[in-house]
């Protein structure tokens, strides 16, 4: 296992005094403490200011149990919203500073062109996925690495947990055909292994692999992952340069999509993620995120220190990645993100139903952190990361409850301007606070949009300023509809968890498909009912308040048509033809993305023979 420089002292290694630098020596600890105190101060000041404003609005005509419920809901939505705003603000400033700004957040980004001396295992974990689609992408990753001239430093492993006989046969045939089409020396670097017992799910599969592997690094890929050879080489060289870097996460962005829903979702997600991640990396630094795929992992410390503990009450950890990240940091290794859009791709859910299913899985997985056993030795930042993963799911039930109580408050305490007269001071205060909250919620993507609009080359890369503005308007409108539907659905999931219900982690639908009206209604009737009740009641007691609530309530009311229309193949084709919500790679695709497009997202790529 690589050893740290003797001048670097870490608390995780039992040092008797505070460390002067992070384990890699890249940053001074006092610099990071100052940054973290600054962000904490900004977040506390903003949160307290908004909480005080909400309190002032609520107490103007007395304060009762209903007001207390509104106040609690408002407080619950603030932490995630406020930190998102400040991450985005910091990230925007760093983006505008250019390469110097990126290095301020990611000093490890400068890796040079050193020859490779580490061996990397490129690993794809599968469970009942479409083998044609998934393994064609792994073959593309290999081909891209071969083109760099460094292919001999990489091996390829398909780690299957599939239990459907047809899928198993297809996986074995695909890998056999792949190997048969290569020279013996290259074929020997391709391996297939299937477990008959998927103990520990994906995390258990990876741990079993690491326990037997003699490679130095591991690059885990999901079934929808795609990375270019140059992007992987950069990550490897960074890991070589910094032996105490345990996990290096790339910024995976959505690959070009044909589904209208995926195009809308990933357009906002991508432009929001860049400033958000850059800002978070500026102060999170060596306690960074791990998203479980499209990242390099140092195998020796991962195998020795990152085995997941059993949950209190039994069961395996499902959202394993963040727990593995904090365990890696506890072992004295850094976990960092490379906040650059550079050759790392994934697919986003093609329909609203698939998106809600994925969100429900993440919600169930993250809430398991409440059942983690005590983990001694974690750094304060690591404990915050685990708490934050839980707190991100406070927003949906808080927002849903507040909307459910809104008609009651309007009926019993007057509501805003029901008779059409000028708004009073309380209503103006409530409206201002509401608009401020909406603006804070949109801050990450607005920061990303502003960064593109301020840069001529970036505008051109997205098809020009007018096309970009059109995509921006479409995405923001869709994001409010998505927020309304997903908040209600996630609230139902969390209520079910409280009653002891559990969910399955089956293979995801990854390709664009249409959704029939009946299918959408059966899945979303509860969400629609919520919208009908809230909007219908508001229409009776306060039409003005109904109009103000539409950014948050219209999504639940229109969940079914939104689902059907954004999944319609014709809508996706029309957006592609118009270049609406197009990404850089759609307009000027690298050859890897072009190859995937030729195979309709990978599903149409035949196994090599």
Residue-averaged pLDDT, rounded? 90
- Described by its quaternary structure, the protein is single chain
Q: Main sheet: which strands, in order across?
A: 3-2-1-4-8-6-9
Major sheet summary line: 7 strands, mixed
Q: Count helical runs.
A: 23
Number of strands: 10
Q: Identify the overall geometry.
A: globular
Instruction: Quote the distance from N terminus to C terminus.
Output: 40 Å
Question: Runs with pLDDT <50, length 5+?
Answer: 1-16, 415-423, 600-609
Instruction: State which percent range the strand residues make up.
Output: 5-15%
Helix content range of the residues, please? 55-70%
Structural class designation: alpha/beta
User: What radius of gyration results from the CA coordinates?
Assistant: 25 Å
Condensed summary:
The chain is an alpha/beta fold and 609 residues long.
Describe this structure in words.
By secondary structure, this protein is α/β, with parallel strands linked by helices. About 60% of the residues lie in helices and about 10% in strands. The chain is built from 23 helices and ten strands. It has helices spanning about 30-60, 65-95, 100-105, 130-145, 165-180, 185, 200-210, 230-240, 260-285, 300-305, 320-330, 350-365, 380-390, 395-415, 425-455, 455-460, 465-500, 515-540, 545-555, 560-565, 570-580, 585, 590-600, and strands spanning about 120-125, 155-160, 190-195, 215-220, 225, 245-250, 255, 295-300, 335-340, 345. The strands form two sheets. Strands 3-2-1-4-8-6-9 form a seven-stranded mixed β-sheet, with helices on both faces. It has a three-stranded mixed β-sheet with strand order 5-10-7. Helix 4 (about 130-145) packs across helix 8 (about 230-240), helix 9 packs across helix 17 (about 465-500) and helix 11 (about 320-330) runs antiparallel to helix 13 (about 380-390). The longest helix has about 35 residues, at about 465-500. The radius of gyration is 25 Å and the shape is globular. The relative contact order is 0.13. The model is unreliable at about 1-15, about 415-425 and about 600-609 (pLDDT under 50).
